[in-house]
Amino acid sequence: HAIAATTVFVAAFAVRWWLRQGLVLGDDPQEYALLLHILTNGPMFSDQLHLRWGGWILNHLAFWLFGVSESAFLAPTAIATSSFGVLAYALFVRWRYGRWRAFLGGLLVALAPFEVMIGSLRANDSYLELAMGAGFAALVLLEAHPIWQGIVLALCLWFGFYVKLWVVYALPALGLYYLAGRRWRALAAFTLASGLVHGATCLYWQAKLGTPIPFISTHAVNYVPRDQLWDLFFKYPHLMFKGSFEFGTTLWGWVPHVLVALLLAKLAALAVRSRPEWLRFDRADGLLLAFWGSFFLLLEFFPNGFKLDAYYTVPRIFRYLAPISFPIALHSAKLVLDVTRARIGRVAPALVTSAVVVPVLVLYGAQCVEATGPSLIYRRNLLAVLHDVRAAKPPKLLAESVLASYFRDLYFDADDEDIEVVINHNEHQAAEYERWLHEHEAALPDGTLLVTGLASFVHYGAHLDGYRLEWFKAPLSPEWKLVREYGLLSYLPRPERARIWRYERPPSARAAMPPDPREDLSSLAGLDDPEALFAGGMARYEKNDYPGARIYFRKLLGVRHPEAENAAFFYAASFCRTG
Q1: What values do phi and psi take at 482, rounded to 5?
Q2: What confidence tens digit (pLDDT) does each residue in 235-264 have?
Q3: pLDDT at 563 exceeding the cut of 60
Q4: Alpha carbons 375 and 246: distance in angstroms, whole number
């Protein structure tokens, strides 16, 4: 069992790491900034994202242990979703499917396309899925120990509650499970344990913030007019059965199709007395159907925001389906394994099982590549651009604002790469970047690199932002020389290639340029006191005289001083890198 479970986990993690998509969600800039703030200053409990500590605690631990990096940002979700295959293996063993079938069933869950897709990026919904999946596994595996079952389940749902309030959607099915089975000891243990952990947490919030339920009061929802409800209710089914609205690629693959087809066959067979074993609707089918079915109905139809005067909902985006992904993938895998129980002459059961499951695994693998396809195109170009920028060591780098911030704060090493990165905080769409570039390019130093085509996040439609030449009204000026052209970003509404350009003035224009005042340190001749230099730089910085401040800070960095690692030198170095 240990070897089989480990193999399932390693296979799941290897596929997620091979297909990792990077920072491609529209929420990633906010989530990454949140983690940096918590890592350096601690949580700010006046913000609801900070209060929902279940959504960041594992990433915070990864940053604390391994440092800030893209890998530490992505690893916790990859590990969490890789564990679902192990849970599936344990559940199939408990349901008496045998070791070989259980192993293949674990792989079916581990390689379900949506599981791989959501596990190869960073979405906090994966942590809600982890709470739900671990809770369901505890429900089944600890049925013989009702006290422990109630305690573990209470802890799982408590953790999930501080990821997202949707964890309460599991309570109706759980209540039915307790009442229908008359499991009073388990119900009492769950109720008491939930009361203790939630009560203690509410007391903590009351003492610290003055309210026992702080993040319920601020819940971002939108009002939906009645005439738009029909289209709204079709969005989640579309994402599951057809795929992405943006790219037309699959997200779930054939998992929901397999589930519906085989489940309908089982339900239809209930009317037949002498039905074969593989069509028998058993207790595990009932548990899974109640779990994901009730959760989906509430997720789909119950209004958000704790208001019932009209219909309110959060945006219907694909990652919000993560909580039902594990039970659906598990149920689909179970139904496929049930098919392998069909008797085909004298063929060995193991051969029948392999003949049924292996083609499904191959299909799922191909659909995993398709589901992650747009992000993989983006990441392949991003890594190539990053490599070439590092090798070129330009004096200044221009890129779309979020991408530029990732370059500066995540990918570049401040000790090795002294590249000034320009971050445009007030520009968003391509037309705004084009206007900014025309207004400022005359002041750019020779050798400045410009990244075009490649912008920030892939999902949620930031396809018109940044230096998108396909949306520029005019071509770049002749001073921009093409350095390298990369792969086609085919997922864009107007596909274009990622490119790097170098700014090079003609010799005549270069000779006519006045000297850059930021490099003229002659006005500070004879001033070598570090404290005076720092004070002078700060005085000009506070008056928004950045070129004047830069002179003082550059001079400060050149002064020999026994305390060259103090805050003043660190601040000066940071300012001269970022402007």
Answers
A1: -70, 125
A2: 999 999 999 999 999 999 999 999 999 999
A3: no
A4: 12
Among 299, 366, 316, CA closest to 112: 366
Ramachandran area for residue 23 (φ above 0: left; ψ -120 to 50: alpha; else beta): beta
- DSSP code for 486: E
Separation between Cα atoms, residue 226 and residue 244, nearest integer Å: 25
Task: Give the position of tokens 């397999």.
Answer: 258
**Are 216 and 304 within 8 A, CB to CB?**
no
At CB < 8 A and 24+ separation, what contacts does 227-234 make?
229/311, 232/313, 232/316, 233/300, 233/301
pLDDT at 512: 52
Cα separation, 449 vs 193, whole angstroms: 58
Q: In this model, does residue 567 exceed pLDDT 70?
A: no
CA 541 to chain centre: 37
> Residue 299 in 3-state DSSP?
helix
Q: What is the pLDDT of residue 535?
A: 84
pTM: 0.86
| Partners of residue 429 on adjacent β-strands | 465
255-269 and 283-301 helices, crossing angle to 10° = 120
- Cβ-based burial of 551 (10 A; exposed 0-12, middle 13-18, buried ≥19): buried
pLDDT > 90: percent of the chain: 69
DSSP line for 271-295: T-SS--GGG---HHHHHHHHHHHHH
Token digits for 18? 């091979």
Residue 286 has pLDDT above 80, yes or no: yes
At 412, the amino acid letter reads: F
> pLDDT tens across 295-344, in order?
999 999 998 876 777 788 888 999 999 999 999 999 999 999 999 988 77
Chain-centre distance of CA 479, in angstroms? 39
Is the C-alpha dihedral spanning 285, 289, 292, 294 positive or negative?
negative
Q: Would the pLDDT of 166 be above 50?
A: yes
Alpha-carbon distances of 127 from 29, 91, 134, 239, 408, rounded to whole Å: 18, 20, 10, 20, 28
11-70 tens-digit pLDDT: 999 999 999 999 999 999 999 999 999 998 999 888 888 999 999 999 999 999 999 999
Question: Checking phi first, is residue 312 left (phi over 0); if not, alpha (psi -120 to 50) or beta?
Answer: beta
The residue among 234, 28, 8 whose CA lies nearest residue 107 is: 8
Contact 483, 501 (CB under 8 A): yes
Q: What is the signed CA dihedral for 383, 388, 394, 397, rounded to 10 degrees?
A: -30
Q: Residue 239 and residue 299: Cα distance in Å, rounded? A: 14
